[in-house]
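This part of the workshop introduces the protein records we will be handling. Getting from the letters to the tokens is the skill we practise here. An example says more than a description, so a record of this kind follows:
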Amino acid sequence: MYDFVYDDSFQGYLTAIFKVYESKALESQICRRSLYNGHLFNQQIEVVTEPLLANRVMKGILEKLGDEWIDMLHKVFLSEDETSDTLGFKAIQLGLRQGKQVLNDERHEVIQPFLKLGRKVARETHNFLGYIRFSQLTSGIYYCEFQPTYNILPLLAPHFADRLKDQSWVIHDSKRGVAAFYDQQTWHLNPLTHVESLSVSEEELQLQGLWRGYFESLAIAERTNLKLQQQKIPKKYWRFFTEDIGVLTQHDIMEKRKGGNQIEKSTD
């Protein structure tokens, strides 16, 4: 058996799929370089990314299986799960043998985990359409830092390029050291590992102050439900909210209020 190892890019992944079919070694494993640990009895084959071959595979999947398949394959790839590469390849094999309708068989031993992984990526992408928080810098550029569980930046960037066409912005995935840059015309992904101290504009600071004041004035101590808030917005995302309205902040506000009330009662 062979291990086809590629360069972590989606084009590299599609090239690897082509190479597996070309070699007729359909029981092989496919794995990206960053996740590959090697298998004792498997022969390793290095895959060099070839855009022409990747485009042939893309075209073939689209023609034979349709947009839904390529969309789900891409999401599964972006999950960065250690099983995702071989799982995606097995799903494509199954679709080519049995037809695109097999994607509806959610109890199938291959289709079930394939769909489950893709939907997790889709769900986090949808959530971050609301979680993303930009801060205006003194340069006029809008900057956002986040650390998603999955590599969803390629899915988010087109959305914000369409919604924020008249603004220059950077969305920085600091977990992976990459950012999407938009110049009011096109967007592209580039490495971004270290960010020096960013200078936020005075207007931005005032807006953030207004958000905090609004939240504090609206909070009702008796109705605090920290567990429910954590279900709505997972704790790992709190620190990236520029308006600073995470559960920790609300908890601090509530504790201060309770403390103040206790002092007042004790003096009566």
User: Anything to note?
Assistant: Strands lie at 2-6, 29-32, 43-46, 135-136, 142-146, 169-173, 178-182, 187-191. Residues 7 and 33 are 6 Å apart (CA to CA).
